[in-house]
Structure formats: C-alpha cells, structure tokens
Amino acid sequence: GDSDTGSSEYRGARAFSEPESRALADLALRWRPDMFVDVHSGDQYLATPFAHISESPGNRTDRAAMRHALRRVVTMFKKQYPSVLQGGDVPIGPASSLGEEPYHATGTALDFMYSRA
Where are the beta strands (DSSP E) in 26-75? Predict the structure, then answer.
C-alpha cells in the first residue's frame, strides 16, 4: 500500500488502523474458516502463503492439503469454463514466488488468514 493518505491505495497508519480491515479481521477471528480465498485479477495462478517471505508454510500436511484442494478447484474450473483459462496448467504456490513479478508483500490478508485465523 501507499503511505500517501490521499492515495486510493493508502495502507493506513498501522496494522488494522482502518475500520474495514478491523471488521474483517474480527470476523475472521470469530468465524475461523477452514479455507480462505483472496481473489486478485491479473496473473493466472493460485497463491498460497506466504507473501511476506520467500517460502512455504513449514507444515507439510497443510501445504499438501492446500495444493490438493486448489488442484481440484482448477480441474473443476477448467471443465466448467474451458475458454477462460489461457494455456495449460495454473501455477500453484507461495504468493512470493509466483507470476512475472512475484507478489512479495507484508500485511496481506492471505498471510493473516493462514497465520492467525
């Protein structure tokens, strides 16, 4: 996010300083979902934690479960909407290592939901 308070991408003064991010964090901590999907437009890949560091979560069972679930989603999506996905397979892996310009960022919803919620 931007540090300019006038920017549409202003990140806030500190973590959860904005009412929208506080409300979503509170909801997530109460609800404790089994799965969270953070949708972005642009690159065609499915990102898993982490975005703030260039590594995957240490728990191999979590990683395997995430990859399995995401592969099933890709398979179902390809059957339902074959013309939408361009090319062959959809890359799956840590946000910090995917795409032409990997999404390396701190304070993301993806990392928060994995680590805290």
Answer: 46-48
